[in-house]
Structure formats: structure tokens, C-alpha cells
Amino acid sequence: MFRLSAIIVALLLILGACQTRQKGESVITSGNTPDSIFQPKYAKGFSIKYFKGYRQIVLNDPWGDSTKNETIVLCQDKTLFQTLQETNDIVINYPANKWIALSSTMVNYADRLEMKQTIGGVAEPQYISDDFIQQGIADGTIKNVGMAVAPDVEVMVDLEPDFMMVSPFKDNHFAAVKSAGVPVLTNSDYLEQTPLGRAEWLVFVGELVGRGEEAKQIMNEMEAAYLGVKKKVESIKDKQTVFTGHIYQGIWYTPAGESYMANFFNDAGFDYIYKETKGTGSLSKDYETIIDKAEHTDYWILILNHPTEITYSEVAKIDERYTDFDAYKNRQLVVTNASHSLYFEKGLLQPHIVLRDLVKAIYPELLEDYQPTYFRKLVEK
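Predicted structure:
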């Protein structure tokens, strides 16, 4: 009787242990300390733990719910594969050999890491300028998986990718993809609120494709260059005031004071007119509110996707009210035409260059010999 009771108690203890073990608390790691941990210096969305035979990426929930963090294991030791699958959300081979990118920015990660050959499929290739990708689509070595919000599951299954990389959305569009057995990895770079924070997601992508150390080195170089420019503007005593945005479908969208672009302006030594506002997204204003606040502002930083060259006369054609601002009248526009400059496609991973551009446009004496890449002060035409 005593022996039977002991067996029952032991079984209950085992069952209790199984029930309380959580995803992300690997059987392998539960009693071990990682050999090392990479905690990003600027990015808030991920961290990496290194163990013998595998590495574990912890993705923080994009919407701030700490109970919904996700674990991705990159496994080198195939004997651990099944055990790790029991206690982590996703387990993939390390390094990944083939993956699907759902945006042009994700392609740029592979470009910076010199690993574009690992991309097996892309969504909406008409919006990707990269010649390697376009050639791959043309000769069939890279597949078009359709729309980013509703990719073709059959095409992806045929590709047999190690994973598909997506941006986070509160509405899950990828249930069918997951059900088909394709791992879906979330890259939350666009939710980072600092330029270096967004760029640091290069390390996340680098780990997936076996270039983690190279990614860290690139990041270190970008950080040093960025901070060097930031230090230069500390000598500026008379900060120039700036505003940004433009009218879209009747609404003028402009960055809130804690946002990515507002942080760029602050690091460039600008006095952004909405710097005191709370929030990390966009403010929605009508024209009357903007003209009341920005009419006498020194500079207008204008980001457009425009089919033709941007000139002062072209800006006036877009909306005659734009000529009411002093920045327009005084020819103090700083512009990038993203349709041609590839600012949205490549600028994310070149924050030091974007910062140089902004500083050069408004404080040219600080960077006398520098030639801008994305942003430039618009000359009279």
C-alpha cells in the first residue's frame, strides 16, 4: 500500500512539473545558465541567449504584453531538435538556408549581410528595387508569393523555407501559413522609436542566417558614425525650428514627440515644433492647425513618394496652400523623394547616413565636404 501511494505521488509530481513548464523555458535551459546573452543596446524587441548546440531568441510581444513573448530556437545540434520543440514556440535549423521576405526592408537586411542568396521568395516584388531580387524573379530562382497581407500558401509550401519573416499586425493574417507548417517570424523593427534601435534588428536577422557576429560589427560601426554626427551638433547654439509631414486625404500627419522621426530631429540638433507632444505614433491635424503652428517655422522636412522630380513649383502644384509657409517662401525645404531615393527601402539600415543628410541640409558648415544620399536641401528651380 505504501509503495503504491509513493508511486502515485511521484506520478502527480511529474504531471505537475509538465503542466507548469512554460513555452520558452526549455528543458535544456531550465537548469543551465546561457553561455552568453546578447541584450541589444537600443532595440527593445528582442534578446538572444547562447547555449551549447543552439541559440534562443526571445521576441518581446510587439504590443507590450509580457505574457505573450515568443521564443525562437536556432538549432545546430539536431539531437536536441525534438526536445526543444516541446518547450519553445519555433525551432529552425541554424543557420537558415532559405526564407521568405514580405517587404523590401527585409531584403535590405539580407543585402547588408551579403546573404541575399538565402531569400527564396518575396511578396509584391514590384515594390522591390534590388537587381538581384528582380533577376531571381525573372529566372525563377526567387518566387513571387503574392500579397504581403495574404501570401500564396501553396507557393510557400512548395518552397519549403526555413521561415517567413513578417511585420507585426494586431490582426493575424498568417494563420493559414502557420497551419501549412511554415514558421512565421515577426520582425518588429518598425515599432522601435529610435534610429539605432531600428537598425539593431540587423543582429536579429544576422543570427538567423549565420551572420550574427558580422551584424554586430556592422551595428557597432553604424553606432560610432551616428554618435559622431550627434556630437557635432552639440556645438549648435541657435537650433533651427522644423516641421514635417504633408496633407494626405485631407489630414496632415506629423510625428508625435516620442516617435522615431522626432528622435532623429532631436539627434540632428533641430527644434521640432511638436517635440513636447506625447506618443510614439503620428499626430493627425487639419491644415488650419498646422499653418497656425508652423507658418513661421524655419525649415520644412518633406518626405514624398512622387513620380517626378520634386521642385518648388511641383510642391505648389501638389497643394497651393503649401506656399503659405515661410519655409516655402524662404526656400528652406529639405526633401527626399522616396520613389527615387529608396529612403524607406534602405535608409532604415543607414541611420548614420540619414542623420548626416539632415545635418548637412540645415547646418552645412558642420559637414562641409559631405554629399547627401537621401535628404537634401531643395534648390530653386
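Summary: Residues 1-22, 24-31 have pLDDT under 50 and may be disordered.
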